[in-house]
Amino acid sequence: MAEYKLNTPLTDAAIEPLKAGDVVFLTGVIYSARDAAHKKLFELLDAGKPLPFELEGSAIYYVGPSPAPPGRPIGSAGPTTSYRMDTFAPRLHALGMKASIGKGKRSDEVKAAMREHKGVYFGATGGAGALLSNSIVGSRVIAFEELGPEAIREMKVKDFPLLVINDCHGGELYVKPDLEAALKGA
Amino acid sequence: MREIQGSAVVEAVAGMCRKGNTELPADVRAKFERAMAEETSPSAREVLRQLLENADLSMATKLPLCQDCGLAVFYVELGDECRVAGGNLRDLINEGVRKGYGEGYLRKSACDPLTRANTGDGAPAVIHFDLVPGDKLRIAYMAKGGGAENMSRVTMLAPAQGWKGIKEFVINRVAEAGPNPCPPTIIGVGIGGTFEHAAKIAKRSLLRKLDDVHPDPRVAAMEKELEEALNRLGIGPMGLGGKTTVLGVKITVEPCHLASLPLAVNVQCHSQRHEEVEL
């Protein structure tokens, strides 16, 4: 397991060495988007309109933060479950997105897209939203404000702690459940 | 007939929403610490370390433990010798939710299922009412996050499938959910009743303390057997592998139709956010 410090925008050269299990501290700008925002991004793409941020080299964070209390740039901001964005991720990878950040399993289609377009899937610790917010130093809504917690935010991160779950070589960190052991005697 | 002021209900509910989202229950913390001592895998230990640090930070800053402050779920027991003055109990609870989620800077996650439009204030809550003897009002609150709730299932087994079928279903469900619901999870199991009642008692089981032992030795043995089986899956904290896939299994068994064996599995994330008050 290696440790990397990476900056956005992400390049093929930055993604290629990453292996499932590596720890990455990400610094720069990432964009929040979850179910409703992805739907709207696809409406823009289908209509041939520009997106609210540059996809090339981008990292999309599947998060809907809690409201920022006075004196903090953001509220709690941990990852949501990623599979709900699986229908969207392949096309975004094809258009230049380099990384998605979330928790939980990805589909075979998303894994294939990461291999084809040199993408990576990072995991952040689910349920550690207060702690993760410490690595977010700035946040502003840049699109779809009407979506409230699901609006797209540009987030400035400093050493955001991530784990490589799926790398661009087909490697995966999640363990396969040992059904046989669990069912033994059941 | 004892009278309970509506304003007391609103304040109590608002307080539970704030506290429940920012203070990790002591029984959950104790389980994290025990799991930390038992896990040998560095990634499992690192996840648990982060969760403990997260709980300390949440307590100190009042930032919610998780950005998903859940859909507010309540189990209410109203004593038949008391009444609530100053408003309808359901309305008062929802007013408390709006107050607690607003003042606590908690994320409001209630939305229309089809248009997906957010209601904007965290309400309406899902409220289960029960009438009980006595002159007290007990309200239990649970912040039920979407990620774990999405991994839950209800099924109608054939009676012949019995305990073996129940175990297989629960084990397969937790295996299939894998890393998605933020393991180590707590598994609420409802056995019996009807289609909807099984789900209701599965969720209610999650209100029990993690370290309690079911008063019925038969059910206590079932809980222990299932917990041990689930921890043999090896999913571990956040799905990174380890001995701790579940922090506990809580089962409720109730009578059912002779043709049925209803079974509900309600998955709860590791932080098990819940609070209870008696008025």
Cross-sheet strand order for the largest sheet of chain A: 2-3-4-5-7
- Give the chain pair forming the largest contact, with residue counts: A-B, 48 and 55 residues
The CATH top-level class label of chain A: Alpha Beta
The fold-level CATH name of chain A is fumarase
Rg over C-alpha atoms of chain B, rounded to the nearest angstrom? 19 Å
Instruction: Give the amount of beta strand of chain A, in percent.
Output: 25-35%
The stretches of 5 or more residues of chain B where confidence is low (pLDDT under 50) are none
Overall number of domains of chain A: 1
- Which structural class is indicated by helix and strand composition of chain A? alpha/beta
Outline:
With 186 residues, chain A is of the alpha/beta class.
Describe this structure in words.
The complex is a heterodimer of chains A (186) and B (279). Chain A is an alpha/beta fold. Chain A has a five-stranded mixed barrel with strand order 2-3-4-5-7. The relative contact order of chain A is 0.22. Chain A is built from six helices and seven strands. In chain A, a hairpin with an 8-residue loop joins strand 6 and strand 7. Chain A has one domain (3-172): Alpha-Beta Barrel (fumarase), CATH 3.20.130.10. Helices cover 23% and strands 26% of the residues of chain A. The model of chain A has no long low-confidence stretch (mean pLDDT 97). Chain B is an alpha/beta fold. Chain B has two domains: 2-21 and 65-144, no CATH class; 147-272, no CATH class. In chain B, strands 4-2-5-10 form a four-stranded mixed beta sheet. A four-stranded mixed beta sheet of chain B has the order 6-9-7-8. In chain B, strands 1-3 form a two-stranded parallel ribbon. In chain B, helix 1 (6-22) packs across helix 4 and helix 2 (26-38) packs antiparallel against helix 3. The longest helix of chain B has 20 residues, at 42-61. The two termini of chain B are 14 Å apart.
